Structure prediction request, 558 residues.
Amino acid sequence: MAPVIVYSEEESWGKQLLTAAKGLGDPVLFTFNRNVAEKLSGMYTRTYYVKTDSFDPVAISGALRDVVNKESATILLFPCTNKGRMIAGLTSGALGFEAITDAVSVVKTGEGLEVEKLTFGGNAMAKVKAGDKASVCIVSGSYKETEEAGSTGELVEIEAKAGSVEVEYSPRKMEGVDPTKADVVVGAGRGVKKKEDLEMIKELASLLGGAWSVTRPLAADYGWADSWIGISGLVISPKLYIAIGISGQPHHTMGVRGAKIIVAINNDESAPIFEEADYGVIGDLYKVVPVLIKKLKERKQQ
Amino acid sequence: MRVLVAVKLTYDINQLKFEKDGTPLLDACPRVMGEADKCALEEAVKLKDAGKAEEVTVLTIGSSKEHQRILKDAYAMGATKAVMVKVDDPDSLSALSVARIISSYAEKTGPYDLILLGSGAGDTHSSVVGPMVASLLGVPLLANADRVSVENGSVTIVSTLEDGQYKFTSKMPAVVTVTSEANEPRIPTIRDILRSKKKPIDETTPEELGAHVSKINIESIIKYEVPRKRVKIDATDNVEEAVEKLIKALEEEGVI
Ligand SMILES: Cc1cc2nc3c(=O)[nH]c(=O)nc-3n(C[C@H](O)[C@H](O)[C@H](O)COP(=O)(O)OP(=O)(O)OC[C@H]3O[C@@H](n4cnc5c(N)ncnc54)[C@H](O)[C@@H]3O)c2cc1C
Ligand SMILES: Nc1ncnc2c1ncn2[C@@H]1O[C@H](COP(=O)(O)O)[C@@H](O)[C@H]1O
Prediction:
């Protein structure tokens, strides 16, 4: 079988993309995270671990390109994240591969890859033919994580050539739990009127043992948080996402489509978020959330 | 220094409507210069205002009146030259083709110190064209800039990625992609708009540039219906009861 190269720097992505890769060929992992390399090398046919001390997209893409050439691979899979898109674009540009993003399914046919992808900000689904040499960025939650080992897993260590970009990195400050890793995420939107009111959101999150986050305006415009959920922010796939005072613009909801269950609390019955929710609570968040907190506390004590 | 900015004529997806059968009504959808592309242009014009850039060339791919319109808008914002790469159906070009056109133009008319693009196109938002242009030209990529600064032949950007904040610095020439958070694009004055009407638009074609292009084969495109349960719980009157209903449902789903 022809190799399919998966780029991932995270365990969860590595497992989701492995499922996608298995349907297309022989899965080979490329990562610069040693932890991921060690954890997942038993699941992939081969794992390339690139030693590098910083995320310089050009240097990393250069190392990936060498691996693609060595493996004679024609299909590359990436997470549909900001970083994934960057590396996919750089690598495909250099190799002359097409790059398709926002994919939810990838199938190999006689004429090359057939991809279903979201477009127009997640409002529409397109079916495209991607040719036989392509990089595909896959939306989180499109594929289930592979759990079983089942490969002998050769681990190859390579060194990235130094790039010409200076990189300074400050890790995302996380108050509490990381939304990308939590089982429950509570999201606040502009329906939450004051920064103090976020306390209520945080309390709900901690009662559910989960994380909290916001929509982009709350982070980027008001500065109430360091990160946000959505197409230009974090992509999450928790078991439960509770969207509070969020209208449900596709830019936001594309970041939560991987959630198993979505609850929306909004006082505008016609808010688009209700189209994207399993349980839509129509009501004033300032009335609903305190009661929800109270009842969850009671439930805990029982 | 010389700056090249690529801007796309994009569908304003907030106004996109669909036919009952899910077909997008693209012809009825207003089109605008991509939001992030406008911010990229604003960064370029700021460099011109600061006396750091002499030339701000704006390029778009397409051949319609609306493509002309956004180039005139770019002139009104302060671009010094506008170029239309004539392609009849630019929306069907693959990302690689778009990148090849932009990089061939840059090679043919360059060297440029800085090539600016939007971090993602307003409608299709693939965010791969900028990175592709960087690798086709063999210059550093600084992507997703929320802030851009240019000093002594170097460019520095601040970029928010999924795992934190990055500051990338490199010598120019470089490709920089700019997010819609980077600035508030200026609103041209009436005088600037009137003046822009008379400015010339250069025309070229992918063939003239020697850019090999291919179309992406779109088989179908329909409204995306999210597969969700859409159970409504009314909490306008009886909040207690509604919340109990919700908790019960979530327990049954096994998510709390
Ligand atoms: C290129 C691009 C990328 C973007 N990327 C992202 C992204 O990654 N993430 C993101 O979130 N956004 C993103 N956006 C912005 C996005 O389009 C929306 O503007 C944003 O998500 C809206 O945030 P919101 O739902 O908090 O606010 P609003 O749209 O203002 O919605 C507020 C909601 O709260 C409800 N409400 C008000 N008061 C109450 C109350 N008392 N009780 C209950 N409900 C109440 C209202 O009915 C309304 O539905 C992006 C935009 C662009 C152009
Ligand atoms: N047809 C086009 N004409 C000019 N520039 C484009 C075109 N398509 C994309 N771009 C540029 O590339 C950026 C990223 O596009 P994309 O990778 O498609 O999200 C856009 O923000 C534009 O700056």
Remarks:
- Residues 285-301 of chain A form the longest helix (17 residues).
